[in-house]
């Protein structure tokens, strides 16, 4: 896997550097902003017809015709995306945040600038460099890890399957481990059966690229143990329960959960949080061949439960259940898993709201508070245990799916919950990891969702 996209949109503001100030303004306070301009600039503003509508901007010249100031129309209630389009809308050059402006959360505005500057460049050269925002050293230091982590998720999710199969996804974990001095090991192909990961093997056995489970370990064993788990289905054909062509088109992104877990692990290690970290990535391709997993098969999982395969397209929960069982064996302080698990979560919450499930109310409350603080939304759905009956099987302990189309995100989470002991704190995130279309700060393609929220939560939970 190639290195993540380098962020060229943020740099340190040094003394004496020339940069054009960008002032955020809304319609209610446009008159106050006008009073700070000279007569020629006010005439220019009038000629441009700038009315401070959100998403618009006006570049103002000085007496020599050079760029002197930018007025950017914003919605003050949406600071994160207020400057999301400016890195590619403004001319190339250096800009800085004006002292004046309606946005109270300047750091969020700068983050949105950088997130909007992202372009995936592996197969196509960018048309231009982004405009660069110069920031104070402390603000730059706080934002750079978050921007890099978001780019890591986006790069991984955007990469087509021929260049990001199970082996390449494992290589991304190995590269992260090397970067932070962590240890790794992997169980590949038939080794999965020997080591006790039968469901991971069953899902991935039909691909010409062997399935695997990659494990990263970092930190002091004396510290609380944190386990991050990410669904790594590098392509999902649906298996013998084959998807339609439309349903299969974007299934390179079905490893978005692994991308999130990997990026979050990187943030944890870079911040040197006092935890004993384990990252687990079950990496497979759900393919079709003569030895493919068949509907109606029964698998005895690592945890000893027997599972009837009702649907081979409900494969993510199968690879996760062995990983979760293995995580629980480590008796961790906390398990967090990320997965692009169900379309039902998208029907319920749409593309921008990841579904959060938790087996502790205090855990859910803490994560949601962190999400609100950093403007990285999540929405809790219930582990409504009466719905377990929707996964009943007539010949196994339970099935991986059922005939009912009701509560699909909840039943998937309930399936996973069976592999986590009640005494183990656990959080599950059903994430889309994708932007369907270009929006300010959110270019079409892979997306990091809930990543900053969880990092803030972990920082607070494991504060030094």
UniProtKB/TrEMBL annotation:
Q: Which GO terms describe its molecular function?
A: manganese ion binding; metalloaminopeptidase activity
Q: Where is the signal peptide?
A: none
Q: Which Gene3D superfamilies match?
A: Leucine Aminopeptidase, subunit E, domain 1, Zn peptidases
* Any one Pfam family match given in the protein's UniProt record, by short name: Peptidase_M17
Any GO BP annotation: proteolysis
Q: Where in the numbering of this chain does the Cytosol aminopeptidase domain appear?
A: 311-318
Keywords in alphabetical order: Aminopeptidase, Hydrolase, Manganese, Protease
Assigned GO CC terms: cytoplasm
CDD domains in UniProt: Peptidase_M17
Keyword Protease appears in the UniProt entry: yes
Q: Which InterPro entries match?
A: Leucine_aapep/pepB (IPR011356), Macro_dom-like (IPR043472), Peptidase_M17_C (IPR000819), Peptidase_M17_N_1 (IPR048816)
Family statement: Belongs to the peptidase M17 family.
Stated name of the protein: Leucyl aminopeptidase
From which source organism is this entry?
Mizugakiibacter sediminis
């Amino acid at each position: 896997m190639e290195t993540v996209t380098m962020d060229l949109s943020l740099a340190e503001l040094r003394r004496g550097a020339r940069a054009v100030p960008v002032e955020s303004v809304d319609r209610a306070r446009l008159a106050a902003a006008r009073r700070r301009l000279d007569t020629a600039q006010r005439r220019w503003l009038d000629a441009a017809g700038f009315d401070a509508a959100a998403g618009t901007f006006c570049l103002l010249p000085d007496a020599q015709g050079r760029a002197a100031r930018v007025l950017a129309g914003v919605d003050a209630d949406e600071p994160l995306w207020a400057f999301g389009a400016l890195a590619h809308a403004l001319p190339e050059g250096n800009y800085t945040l004006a002292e004046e402006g309606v946005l109270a959360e300047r750091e969020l505005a700068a983050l949105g600038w950088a997130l909007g500057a992202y372009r995936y460049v592996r197969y196509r050269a960018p048309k231009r460099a982004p405009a660069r925002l110069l920031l104070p050293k402390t603000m730059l230091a706080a934002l750079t890890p978050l921007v890099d982590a978001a780019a890591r998720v986006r790069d991984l999710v955007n990469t087509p399957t021929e260049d990001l199969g199970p082996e390449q996804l494992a290589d991304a974990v190995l590269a992260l481990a090397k970067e932070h001095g962590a240890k790794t090991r992997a169980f590949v192909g038939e080794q999965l059966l020997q080591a006790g990961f039968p469901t991971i093997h069953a899902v991935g056995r039909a691909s010409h690229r062997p399935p695997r489970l990659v494990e990263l370990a970092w930190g002091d064993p004396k510290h609380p143990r944190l386990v991050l788990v990410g669904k790594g289905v590098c392509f999902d054909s649906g298996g013998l329960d084959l998807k339609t062509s439309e349903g299969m088109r974007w299934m390179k992104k079905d490893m978005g959960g692994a991308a999130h877990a990997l990026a979050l692990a990187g943030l944890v290690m870079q911040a040197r949080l006092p935890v004993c970290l384990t990252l687990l990535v079950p990496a497979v391709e759900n393919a079709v061949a003569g030895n493919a997993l068949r509907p109606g098969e029964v698998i005895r999982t690592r945890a000893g439960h027997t599972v009837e395969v009702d649907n081979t397209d409900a494969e993510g929960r199968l690879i996760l259940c062995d990983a979760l069982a293995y995580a629980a064996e480590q008796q961790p302080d906390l398990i967090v898993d990320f997965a692009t698990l169900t379309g039902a979560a998208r029907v319920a919450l749409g593309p921008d709201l990841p579904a959060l499930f938790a087996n502790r109310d205090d855990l859910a409350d803490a994560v949601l508070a962190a999400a609100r603080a950093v403007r990285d939304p999540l929405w809790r759905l219930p582990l409504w245990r009466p719905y377990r009956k929707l996964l009943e099987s007539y010949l196994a302990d339970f099935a991986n799916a059922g005939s009912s189309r009701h509560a699909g995100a909840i039943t998937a989470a309930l399936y996973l919950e069976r592999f986590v002991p009640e005494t183990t704190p656990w959080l599950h995130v059903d994430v889309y990891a994708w932007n369907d279309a270009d929006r300010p700060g959110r270019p079409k393609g892979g997306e990091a969702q809930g990543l900053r929220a969880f990092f803030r939560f972990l920082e607070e939970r494991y504060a030094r």
